[in-house]
Amino acid sequence: CRVMTILNRRDAADMSEMVPPEVRPKPAVPAKPAHVVPSSAHTPHGPGAGGPGSGGSTLLGYIGIDTIIEQMRKKTMKTGFDFNIMVVGHSGLGKSTLVNTLFKSQVSRKSAGWSRDEKIPKTVEIKSVSHVIEEGGVKMKLTIIDTPGFGDQINNNNCWEPIEKYINEQYEKFLKEEVNIARKKRIPDTRVHCCLYFISPTGHSLRQLDIEFMKHLSRVVNLIPVIAKSDTLTPDEKTDFKQRVRKELEICGIEFYPQKEFDEDTEDKSDNDKIREAMPFAVVGSDKEYQVNSKRVLGRKSPWGVVEVENPNHCEFSLLRDFLIRSHLQDLKEVTHNIHYETYRAKRLNDNGGLHPISTGVGDTQESNL
Amino acid sequence: MSKDFESRQWSQLDASDCGLLSPISPSRPKSPWGRFDPYDSQEDQDKEYVGFATLPNQVHRKSVKKGFDFTLMVAGESGLGKSTLVNSLFLTDLYKDRKLLNAEERITQTVEITKHTVDIEEKGVKLKLTIVDTPGFGDAVNNTECWKSVADYIDQQFEQYFRDESGLNRKNIQDNRVHCCLYFISPFGHGLRPLDVEFMKALHEKVNIVPVLAKADTLTPSEVKKKKLKIREEIEQYGIKIYQFPDCDSDEDEDFKQQDHELKESIPFAVIGSNTVVEAKGKRVRGRLYPWGIVEVENSAHCDFVKLRNMLVRTHMQDLKDVTRETHYENYRAQCIQSMTRMVVKERNRKYEMCFPFCLYSKLTRESGTDFPIPMVPGITDSETEKLIREKDEEVRHKIKRHMKTRSAIRHCFSRPWPLFHFLLMPPCLINQL
Prior knowledge:
The structure holds two protein chains of two kinds.
Chain A: H1 2-12, H2 67-79, E1 81-88, H3 95-102, E2 127-135, E3 138-146, H4 161-179, E4 194-199, H5 208-217, E5 223-227, H6 235-251, H7 266-278, E6 281-282, E7 289-292, E8 295-302, E9 305-308, H8 317-327, H9 329-352
Parallel strand pairs in A: 1-3, 1-4, 4-5, 5-6
Antiparallel strand pairs in A: 2-3, 7-8, 8-9
Chain B: H1 2-7, H2 42-46, H3 55-66, E1 68-75, H4 82-90, E2 114-122, E3 125-133, H5 148-166, E4 180-185, H6 194-203, E5 209-213, H7 221-237, H8 254-265, E6 269-270, E7 277-280, E8 283-290, E9 293-296, H9 305-315, H10 317-355, H11 361-368, H12 383-414, H13 421-424, H14 428-433
Parallel strand pairs in B: 1-3, 1-4, 4-5, 5-6
Antiparallel strand pairs in B: 2-3, 7-8, 8-9
Helix pairs in contact in B: 9-10, 10-12
């Protein structure tokens, strides 16, 4: 039924963008929806693809509607898809290392010859790096947007403003493309799909800057708070800290991804509830491998032991990775497109009393229309 | 000279039957210093000494009776383990009733200064330890000048001591001056942050700063080394004067020199604190229990806690107090006195001019025969007269300026062969000046 809902939404959005299918772990066969009652004589052979429309009617033969999944898969593999992730946090919290660990390759700026001895910039800068990575025949254009200088100054008032501006600029770019008369077949999507916010593991509670930032940005982008360098916390401290952080987020009304209000059905809700209970994930990143019990693992070695990054007893990195990449990657993009982008679009339309399509393809000369 | 010594024969004393004689040499009274007696060895017994080598012992005894005091300040962002470290260092629980505020409550918090005092006694030696904490430091979004209240506090203590010292009753002066400031550097950054630099620069001439790398169990040994180097470089680059360990004398033994060198190389100390005792390899140690291992606080391979404790308590406590007294406090005192004198001189000059408003300055000094401003008419303080004084001040200043101008013009005139009738145009009093 998830597949069907995508098709419906596609109609509504006027086919302006091809929304690629989910990259969930491929189920062998979609489950039979409960309301299709097999008739005594003619049991549908294939999966009962009775969606909302057919409510109860039995199928007389196998049509092959389910092959749409395969077709979409093939298309996606050809075109590939893009994913934009932004990392925000004080310098030194291991953002670049974590991103490298997540995508198992040197994708962040850290590898691009950027020396770690650079001075802290005076204002928040936005730097983005793109890579194309491929796995199982599927190509992904991954863009990491880094924000050096965030929270590092003595006076950090409004340091989230450049970030908010950047995100809105990406929406604006997409909007302009959408509003064109002659539209591109596939609008390049530079919108930020996900923002990982790194919380410093003080063990006490959130800092004021954290709250201010998250308040402002949870409304424009999917925000995923993450506890950085969590090998500094013992298990008890970790649980206490997480509880305190969650409580504070609730008190301040900060809705991080997955947002409760966007849960579509009970299945989603229960899955997401479990995830929300476990957030914010306490992670450790590393790009070095060590030998532990005759296995090579990614980790950090100290005189007192080796912190294994992918060991769920040590840290929650694998939970984050599964959540971010293996199950909710597509959902992140959808929520960005259907909710955050639509909110921005609606605001723009209301503000300007209507958008006029730009006659030329480029549209930069006719700025006044918008 | 030696004859005099020889004439002092202890054997003249008849104290042999009083049990007051030392067991080694029956001709001498039993030394009150016991095994600390510098004259205890066999060969010393035969020589004649004055006996003042026992002075250090006497000083020691007096100070032990009086007890020691030490004020330690801890500064740094919240969540860096300051309280835990203090508790571990001194094996106390100073922060039992502390309530941690959450972020909402902390929005309106400014940097406070809190003091906790505890009396510790160990082997008969009493220590009155005061810990000065700075909650709220570096926690706000805008942290401009958040070190101001810390600097003000330190100055206040100096001022208090200065006043007490200049007072009449100096018997029981309470020394609240801050002897040492442990500044906690976050291990999550890449070296010093702008806030760290500003704080240390504002305070390095008021207090002994000992930088400390907090929560060092986050870092692997190579990361610790890299960070320490970077921090030391940055400290030099920004001209921050942290507490310098006194150089050891050239005649100390190699071991001591080696230790001293190691100590200097360990700055900033990478520390871990813990209030809990955990079981490790069958023995109980203070440490932190992780799923991947146990960090022992007192293991030098794990962190520099032992080095810091030794430095702070066992070897350099007195030196810290001395440097505070001799350098920081003296600087403060000198500055204070200088600014006071400047104020007094300015006041005097101003009131002097006010009192003689219509005369020219130089004429007056010539007449009075002295260059010093004459001490003034007291008590003119209300605002109207102040205004009058200021107006007169301005008039005098203008007159002086004009006078100086004409004087240089006249000199200029007379340096050239000008016709004489110009001379007649000048007012008589100015001619007088020439």
